[in-house]
Design a protein that fits this description.
Helix content is about 50%, strand content about 5%. It is mostly helical. It has one domain: Orthogonal Bundle (Arc Repressor Mutant, subunit A). The chain has a two-stranded antiparallel ribbon with strand order 1-2.
Length: about 60
């Protein structure tokens, strides 16, 4: 899978199930959990995903543009 498709697949998976774990995403993508963490951090910085302050560890929100 290309590097470009992974962030999109993460966004799609988070949209379907915002409470999914990074381990689950890593298994779906066939990459290490640390890689998923890096993708999610980049998606947060770019404004595609919001991780609420004080929210549950697994709670995320995909933001619409």
């Amino acid at each position: 899978m290309s590097e470009i498709k992974r962030p999109l697949r993460i966004l799609e998976a988070l949209e379907r199930n915002p409470e999914t774990t990074q381990a689950n995403l890593a298994a779906q993508l066939g990459v290490a959990v640390d890689s998923v963490n890096g993708y999610i951090k980049r998606l947060i910085r770019k404004g595609y995903v919001k991780w609420p302050d004080g929210g549950a560890k697994n709670e995320s929100r995909v933001l619409e543009r």
